[in-house]
Amino acid sequence: MGYGLFERLRGVDKWPFVQASVTSVEQVSEGGRSGLSRNIFFTYRCGAEDFDGKFYVDSFSSVYEFDSGDTFDIQCNPRKPAQYFCEEAQSLFKNLRLVICTIGILFAIFAVIIEWFHL
Prior knowledge:
five-stranded antiparallel β-sheet, CATH 2.40.50, alpha+beta
């Protein structure tokens, strides 16, 4: 599995796997500039309790094709069972957007520092 730095810092790689079941799917975007996207609603059991979850996914995620009744694996935090992670719900486009935003923020901070100190 390929966990990112943020997931490793959260300890996701040590969380147990549980089975989730899709309860409903909501089409958010039919395409265009933002592409195809959906909300995937699901339930899962962690310990003795049932929990609800939701993923916002784009068409580059394998979870995008899921429909009501489909099952898939997620990881849940045993200390805080309402926290969950699913590597399948990640997509290259979503990760690329995160990297671009991070670079933009770092550039803005750098520009402010340069302006502040007149370097």
